Amino acid sequence: MSRFTSITQNTALNNGVLMPWLGFGVFKTQEGAQVEQAIADALEAGYRSIDTAAIYGNEEGVGRAVAASGLKREELFITTKVWNSNQGYESTLKAFEESRRKLKLEVIDLYLVHWPVAGKYKDTYRALEKLYKEGHVRAIGVSNFLIPHLDDLLGSCEVVPAVNQVEFQPFLTQPDLQSYCKDRGIQLEAWSPLLQGNLDVPLLQEIGQAHGKSAAQVILRWDLQSGVVTIPKSVTKSRIIENADIFNFELTDEEMASINGLNKNRRFGSDPMNFNF
């Protein structure tokens, strides 16, 4: 039987902190009523992990939605990220305080370096290590780091990143990065898992029909069975519910292999090796 049978299931990060396998992303979700309603719908559907970032401009709305939920703080897992223009040691510490103020949370569950800004990300990560050691964050990690960035960081850091959040989808499976992170105890997490809406892929639709599921649900299930945490976003209640309904079917080994075979090394987002920081 599958090990993924409930939205309440977590993965244990390399420091023992539990993180939900399925989370809810709020990238490009508008501050105010839109993000608050989307999170309310997500929490109602059973999600307990919310992923935001300083650059999204909606941390305050996330904070209000969390406060209004009535859920105990320990029931929720909140992630945010330090933006590129705030990278550096002291500026990251200030940025964290700003994020914490907006979220109205004493402790952040996961704090990430948003992009590997050359010449800055090591100092940025050093600030994250300080925040972690002082108990202001429960886990720290990185986002959009490829193997060269991780090699560089691991050569000097004291705390191995708990998470690396990257673009991961059927056209960009990054098997070398998957293996690298797994070997070092770094949990891979997929941002923008649903091909940014480009779901008209015959193979995914065929597999979906075989299970009575949508192409989106097939991708999210593939994420989990690949051992990758995933954080789909939507502002539509029916889609939010649909994206969570992935725990009552299982992809076969053959189906997993065929989805892996869709890889084209094609990005919908920016390339971390050629990003205009």
Report what the structure shows.
This is Aldo/keto reductase. Belongs to the aldo/keto reductase family. One of its GO terms (molecular function) is oxidoreductase activity, acting on the CH-OH group of donors, NAD or NADP as acceptor. With 277 residues, this protein is α/β, with parallel strands linked by helices. It has one domain: TIM Barrel (Alpha-Beta Barrel). It has 10 helices and 10 strands. The chain has an 8-stranded parallel beta sheet. Helix 1 links the parallel strand 3 and strand 4. Helix 1 packs across helix 2, helix 3 crosses helix 4 and helix 7 packs across helix 8. The model has no long low-confidence stretch (mean pLDDT 97).
Q: Strand pairing plus helix content: what structural class?
A: alpha/beta
Cα distance, first to last residue? 45 Å
DSSP strand count: 10
User: What is the average of the pLDDT values?
Assistant: 97
- Annotated CATH topology: TIM Barrel
Number of helices: 10
The topology string of helices and strands comes to EEEHEHEHEHEHEHEHHEHH
Tell me the name of the CATH class. Answer: Alpha Beta
Under the CATH scheme, which architecture would be assigned? Answer: Alpha-Beta Barrel
The unreliable regions are none
Count of folded domains: 1
Roughly what fraction of the amino acids lie in strands? 15-25%
- Largest sheet: number of strands, sense, barrel closure: 8 strands, parallel
**Gross geometry:** globular
Walk across the major sheet and give the strand order: 3-4-5-6-7-8-9-10
Radius of gyration based on Cα positions: 18 Å
Show the helix and strand layout.
Blueprint: E1 10-12, E2 18-20, E3 24-25, H1 33-45, E4 49-51, H2 59-69, E5 77-82, H3 89-103, E6 108-113, H4 121-133, E7 137-143, H5 147-154, E8 163-167, H6 175-183, E9 187-191, H7 202-211, H8 215-225, E10 229-230, H9 237-244, H10 253-260
Parallel strand pairs: 3-4, 4-5, 5-6, 6-7, 7-8, 8-9, 9-10
Antiparallel strand pairs: 1-2
